[in-house]
Amino acid sequence: MQNPDPGAAHRPESAGGEAAAPGGPNLNRLARGGALNLVGAAVAGVQGLALVFLVAHLYSQRIAGTFFAATSLFIILQAVSWLGTDAGLLRWLPRHLALGDRAAARRTVPVALVPVLVTAVVAGLVLLATAPWTAGHVGAGDTGEAAGMVRVLALFLPLAAAQDALLAATRGYGSMRPTVLTDKILRQTLQVAGVVAAAVLADGAVWLALAWAAPYLPCLVIAALWYLKISRAGGAGVQAADPAPEKIGRRPLAGEFWRFTAPRAFAQICQTAFQRADIVLVAALSSPREAAIYTAATRFIVISQLVTQAVQNVMQPAVSRLLALADRAGAQRIFAVCASWNLALAWPVHLSIAVGAPVYLGAFGPGYGGSGEAVTVILAMAMLVATATGARDVMLLMAGRSGLSLVNQSTALGVNLVLNVLLIPPFGIVGAAVARASGLLVRTMLALVQVRRILGMSPASAGLFWAGGSALVSFAVLPLAVRFVAGSSPIAFACALVPGVILYFALLWAGRERLSLTAFASLLPGRRGRAAQGPAGPAAVPTIDTTPARSAHAGN
User: Fold this and answer.
1) What gap in Å lies between CA 100 and CA 355, rounded to an integer?
2) Largest interatomic CA distance in the chain
3) Which residue has the higher pLDDT, 556 or 525?
4) Element spanning 410, H or E
5) Is residue 512 exposed (0-12), middle (13-18) or buried (19+ Cβ within 10 Å)?
């Protein structure tokens, strides 16, 4: 992670070297980091579906719906407690490191962490005090079990918020492994195992909530130890070739951090509420049973979000560095390439789910189809638009436009909430799906226009159109043709997917230059060292550490 010449980050030829090979060192590091994150996203996606599948099969729809509503409320409060510090840390830590001020980077973390902890403790106490009232809205007639769930979740809220902040700090230092291994793999694996153990060894909703929340404790400990190791290693042995950067006082440091992060705090709340509030509203305005069906019907979105997050986690610090060095061409290149990678990964999921909605919902058991199929198709179509337009919000945030991000998120949440209240009573979960799709499209279009007009950047590229066309042919045209001939049975769907997957990989290989997939060649043995050397030589800015260190994290 150390830059052998910290002063090079300030010199024009250093920035120009990176710009001269925009598809070289930067994309190679993104490919390595993205590959690691995609492994974590794949595991987390499977575990997330397994969790919903197990709860749906091991518990009644009433308990399952109450559980999904209560955990959705937990995640919303977790976002409230987080105060937007993920974006703040991912913007400021790479900037401080790129400019050689590692002391400022280390001092930034407690500036973020202390308010997060205080807010999470207060939110947890409020949730404890209001548990009976909350349970009355999400638990239908069983307020006792629902209140027990809420109390258990309230106790673990500060642990979850602290874990998230520490993992964001490790990503700010350029290491993706802590987030992937701790949050995406370990925590979710423990949650799935805990749900099974709770169903076998105990019988009650409270034990289900405890099994889901308890993994936050060991994961917090691991995240804290990992952050300490990374931050100490990142600050050791730095010998500045240029004069040391002027030391920033704690108050100015905190001031600039929170001026950027405060709008993001509200935007983060709006974003999480947008993703989860409809489940709570369905439980309150309809029934916990409908909330269980709606959760199952919309769970596939999490897979797409994990894929998008996997790309964004490596994209954010890279874009922050490039914008700090005034390399707008390099930032545009990364934006466009990451948009094509994101579409190439997400569209197969959404198209397959839309075409095979009956098969998808049938996996959750009887009673999850019907209106659930309409929900799945509506949201799959909306997600096609959202995932085709790249990481628009990341570009706004890394350019310092957190206020615009807040406007977009709050507008989308307002549209979503108003339409939910209007449409759920007469149309049930289909109305909730229309509300969520409308808010998603509003947010997407607003951010796309802003990125284009303010930053002069666009996600469009030859790779984006090639990936989109390949996905449509492989996962829409071909499966629909098979479905028209052979029906919508699981066997027919599987028979359509196999040749579709083969065709898709063949098309991606044919368009590998357009998609910049050649950057992944740096993952091959013996290629990483050569790939890191662009026309300008080794990268002059701090690199993203995405591969196992030889000693620092051995055995983890």
Assistant:
1) 51
2) 72
3) 525
4) helix 402-427
5) middle
Instruction: Give the mean model confidence (pLDDT) for residues 192-217.
Output: 90
- Lookup result for tokens 């994309």: 27
Give CA–CA dist 107/354, Å, rounded.
47
- The answer to whether 319 and 390 are in contact (CB under 8 A) is no
Residue among 318, 326, 245, 455 at smallest CA distance from 12: 326
Closest CA to 402 of 86, 98, 56, 150: 86
> Nearest 5°: phi and psi at 176?
-90, -20
- Rounded to 10 degrees, what is the CA torsion of 513, 517, 522, 523? -150
Residue 371: pLDDT over 60: yes
Quick: pLDDT tens for 138-172: 655 556 778 889 999 999 999 999 999 999 999 88
**Nearby residues of 54 by Cβ (< 8 Å), 6 or more positions away:** 192, 195, 196, 199
Name the amino acid, one letter, at 102: R
pLDDT tens digits for range 379-398: 999 999 999 998 888 888 88
State both tokens at 217: 């404790």
**Look-up: residue for tokens 């596939």?**
300
d(CA 20, CA 8): 15
Residue whose tokens read 């024009």: 12
> Residue 246 region, left (φ>0) first, then alpha (ψ -120 to 50), else beta?
beta
Q: In b/e form, how buried is each residue of 485-510, taking b as 16+ CB within 10 angstroms?
A: eeebeeebbeebbeebeeebeebbee
Q: Could you tell me which of 165, 95, 539 has the C-alpha nearest to residue 320?
A: 95
Angle, in degrees to the nearest 10, between helices 143-172 and 85-98: 10
Contact 98, 326 (CB under 8 A): no
Q: Give bridge partners of residue 58 from the DSSP assignment.
A: none
User: Residue 28: what pLDDT?
Assistant: 61
| φ/ψ of residue 245, rounded to 5 | -65, 150
